[in-house]
Amino acid sequence: MSQHYQLTIYQQGKLLGHFQSQSMHALAKINSLLSYLQHTSELSYELHQVIEDARYLMQKDGVMQLLGTQYIYKPCSMSILAQEIA
To answer: What is the model's pTM?
Structure first.
């Protein structure tokens, strides 16, 4: 079963961006990214896990079309990344 996580990255307290990983090894991919960024001391991170998603669909001419997806995240501890390595 795939996992879906989002790593939020801040630089000196300001939002720099988000990294989303949705795969069987999502935490390993986030760990890999963090290994590249670990030498940048002004960065801080928050980890979130998707707990629910909503899909917006439209039916047109008998065909269902996906209009978009919205994810609901909950914060989780960065310590689960250390557990992934072990």
So the answer is: 0.76
Query: What does the longest C-alpha to C-alpha distance in the chain come to?
Result: 54
What are the Cα distances from residue 64, in Å, to 26, 47, 69, 70?
29, 33, 14, 17
**What CA dihedral angle connects 33, 38, 42 and 46, to 10 degrees?**
50
How many CA atoms are closer than 13 Å to the CA of 48, on its beta-carbon side? 16
Structure-token match 């991170």, residue found: 45
The residues spanned by each domain of the chain are 4-84
Residues 1 and 69: their CA atoms lie apart, in Å, by: 19
Q: What is the pLDDT of residues 3-57, one digit of tens each?
A: 899 999 999 999 999 999 988 889 999 999 999 988 888 899 999 999 988 999 9
